[in-house]
Design brief:
Blueprint (H helix, E strand, L loop, with lengths): L14 E5 L4 H10 L9 E3 L5 H6 L4 H4 L4 E6 L8 H15 L3 E6 L8 H8 L5 E5 H7 L8 H7 L5 H17 L7 E4 L22 H15 L3 E7 L2 H10 L11 E7 L3 H12 L6 E5 L2 H10 L4 E4 L6 H7 L10 H20 L5 H8 L2 E6 L5 H10 L10 H9 L4 E8 L2 E14 L2 E9 L8 H15 L5 E5 L6 H9 L3 E4 L5 E5 L4 H6 L3
Helix pairs in contact: 1-8, 6-8, 6-13, 9-13, 16-17
Length: about 525
């Protein structure tokens, strides 16, 4: 299996599949993939042809699968007239009403027409992943996916090879929910974005044909899904600038799609370390896309936690990119869509940081607005995402699945958002609390490190602590599991603590007194 996170293997989601055609071969393949170590709890087919019923019936197998992944397999031609839009609306409505993850896999009709239109109706819905089976056919080398004989005899319209490609793709969707995702794609220029060396050729001589436009289109789609793009090229900066400027009409990517760049003659692994420091993320958040095998090998050796995708000249570049799980992000949140805008604003914020003496002065100059609101169902997916991805400022005591279960069971929670005059970060942190045996406790506390030193963590924790005080509790208990990477969160909490003790399970129990606002104010970072 690709990309599973060992930490959450116990939280294997159940998978329910509904199809508008016979998909028995696919179910058998998913069952086979689900053998040890497995990617799901169970794989269950819904009744034949019951797609709309599964989406609309409050008692359906989809509706009962509250913590799992529900999969729709369909073709545009299965829905006559306005049916495509109606089934898309039903899918979007289901995703809005349920906390489970919904995948709509759109297969091509025999003419391979119409699937893009159906995908368009589904794109941008939180909690819903709209995927094209044709992309997986291409990735896994299925040239002819259609089985006309099977379609005529038993409404099995695709070959075993086609179903196998989709089974692999669906296993990646499930795995992506448990794996720590990449955030940044570092892109080479020569022989990656265009053919030829821009330092040796006039921009007009560079090759920008379908192969290179397909790579650019893929990267642009990943950008729109929330990946951050940076340039990492051994080159002369002026030559790269000329290529972008003079071939702008042929390129699908512009310099504005890239939040930063390293164009120099240093080893690329050194440049990745520099870019990671600039963006405030770990090198394990990066994936490098490069045509040079030696560069890829050197980067993989120097930075083993960094993803590397080799894109040789003679390969089907788009198939290589689609086949790699490094770029898997099927469920996109509003925070993902705001990410590039936020990173671009960071350069402007950095100019302000250099001339201020305190976080308070910085926030005043940036016109910072920090807002904490109770967590509603619309926030749940973002909270799960934060629980899965945050590894530095986190209490690390609950997995994303446990956080989701607590919220569904009615646990009180809050989300905090941040914006300033340079842009909107969206939801950057969350807390989940509860009451047990007369104690008020914060069970999960997490925040994006990009919101540090802005008063965000303080405001979030104060809200959770005050909620306990309003309910009559004299103290708030916060458990923290030291991971070796979450020292930021531990230091933040211990500075504000009335008492800190180590528990038998090696977790720390931090006790916070809500009646000492002055002390807490002094500990603000």
């Amino acid at each position: 299996m690709v990309g599973n996170s060992t930490e959450d293997l116990a939280d294997e989601p159940d998978v329910v599949v509904a199809s508008s055609f016979t998909s028995t071969p696919l179910i058998a393949l998913l069952d086979h993939l689900n053998e040890d170590p497995g990617f799901a709890g169970t794989v269950t087919p819904a009744a034949y042809g019951q797609v709309v019923e599964q989406l609309l019936d409050p008692g359906s197998a989809f509706a009962r699968n509250t913590t799992g992944v529900n999969v729709v397999l369909t073709r545009p031609g299965d829905w006559a007239g306005a049916g495509v839009r109606q089934v898309a609306d039903a899918a979007a409505d289901f995703a809005a009403r349920h906390s489970s993850h919904l995948v709509v896999c759109v297969f091509p009709d025999s003419s391979e027409a119409g699937d893009l239109e159906m995908i368009g109706h589904l794109t941008g819905v939180e909690g819903l992943a709209a995927v094209r089976a044709a992309d997986w056919f291409h990735a896994y080398g299925v040239a002819d996916p259609f089985d006309t004989r099977g379609a005529a005899l038993a409404d099995v319209p695709f070959t075993d090879e086609a179903f196998a490609a989709v089974a692999l793709g669906l296993s990646r969707v499930v795995a992506s929910l448990r794996a720590k995702p990449r955030k940044v794609i570092a892109v080479d220029c020569d022989y990656t974005l265009w053919g030829g060396a821009c330092g040796d050729l006039d921009p007009a001589e560079l090759t920008i044909d379908d192969r290179y436009r397909q790579v650019q289109r893929f990267l642009r789609e990943r950008h729109d899904a929330g990946f951050v793009l940076v340039i990492c090229s051994r080159n002369d900066p002026a030559s790269v600038d000329r290529a972008f400027a003079e071939r702008a009409g042929d390129l699908l990517l512009t310099p504005e799609h890239f939040v930063s760049r390293r164009v120099n003659w240093f080893p690329k692994w050194e440049n990745l370390i520099s870019l990671a420091a600039e963006l405030g993320v770990g090198v394990d958040s990066f994936v490098l896309v490069d045509d040079d095998a030696l560069t890829c090998a050197q980067t993989a050796e120097a930075l083993p936690s960094t993803g590397v995708v080799h894109l040789p000249d003679d390969a089907d570049a788009l198939a290589v990119l689609r086949r790699s799980p490094q770029f898997d992000r099927f469920f996109t949140t509003q925070a993902d869509r705001l990410r590039n805008q936020s990173y671009r604003g960071d350069a402007l914020r950095a100019q302000q940081v250099a001339t201020v003496s305190s976080p308070e002065e910085l926030n005043a100059r940036l016109e910072t607005v920090v807002e904490v609101v109770p967590a509603e169902q619309a926030h749940w997916r973002r909270i799960e995402q934060l629980a899965a991805r945050t590894n530095q400022f986190t209490s690390a005591t609950m997995t994303s699945a446990q956080v989701a279960a607590a919220l569904r069971d009615g646990a009180p929670g809050w989300v905090v958002s941040l914006r300033d005059r340079f842009g909107d970060y969206g939801v950057v942190g969350a807390a989940v609390a509860g009451e047990t045996d007369g104690d008020w406790h914060v069970d999960a506390l997490m925040m994006s490190c990009r919101a540090l030193n802005r008063g965000v963590a303080e405001t979030l924790l104060d809200t959770a602590v005050q909620a306990g005080a309003d309910a009559g509790f004299s103290h708030t208990r916060v458990r923290v599991r030291p991971t070796g990477r979450n020292e930021l969160a531990i230091d933040f909490l211990t500075q504000r603590a009335l008492d800190v003790s180590e528990q038998a399970d090696s977790q720390l129990l931090v006790v916070i007194d809500p009646n000492s606002p002055a002390e807490r104010e002094g500990a603000r970072s």
